[in-house]
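Question (not urgent): is this output format expected?
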Amino acid sequence: MFTLDRGRVDTQLSLDLHAEALGWVYNQHERDCSKCGQTMPLNEKVKPSGRSPSGDMTWQHFYPCEAPKRKPRAAKVEVVVPPVKSTERRHKLLPKVLRKLAAGLNVMLVGPAGSGKTTLAAQAAQELGLEFSFISCSAGMSEGQLLGRLLPVEAGGTFGYVPAQFVQAYEQGGMFLLDEFDAADGNTCTVLNAALAGKFMALPNRTDKPLANKHANFKVISAANTFGLGADRMYAGRNQLDAATLNRFTCATLECDYDRELEADLVPDSVVRDTCWKLRDLVRERKFRQIVGTRDMLAAQACRNVGEAYREIFADMLVAWSADERKAAASILEKLPC
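Got this back:
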């Protein structure tokens, strides 16, 4: 119990005295370590190291300092939307994705299979100069695949913490893609809510440092075939995601449709290209439960490159279509050269 002058409680002084009694506190201010000179992250465990000549408390890392030399604080830099600088053809949605990322938002790309969502995320990472990593989500994906696991990797088979790729990108910077995001279990994805909305995340398996701090250059994109509201006739393996998780992508949930200009560059054979476009228009007009995407066009072009005939290529592409659907497409296919 301590008494302060004039009966007024000085909050910071109280915290300092409390820290001296405990020997440690969780850092709540921007402080430099008195030992290594580094700025200590918020919510990191720190301990008092003495007092300055002016009488103020000085602090240092609670755990051994990682850096032996003093490093200056990084200057704050204004975020600028990078231009699309590559000469290679980029997806038409890339400039908008870069703007959303520059605004500090999490991006969710929603579109049909084969529309270039995964490629678009990789292109964004390339334009920003960030390392690209991803996970393909499913209902069987565990929290450990996102937060890291305890595995017998230490000497003598002792269990040690092994970080997941998401954690590495979160702490060290990089572009992380949550691919097939709407196939994940909605409850599992809630473990990411704090990380996506704030500047830290809990890592219960990392007992020596259970709080991860978000790197300034961490970016996240998710790719989905639905808006996370559950399965439909086409994408039957999709799940309903929690509304709180979906809210982490507010103002940056973007529809990602096929890019015909990009497809024209990727598929030089005009017969392959035009036939695929006509089949896609037919599918949309008749509401067939079929896909004719960029991936299908690339596969057809690859078959053509090894000498397969047009009619053989498209007969194989439509092999799973119903008899009625193939009949509707006959008027397109019968115009193909042999």
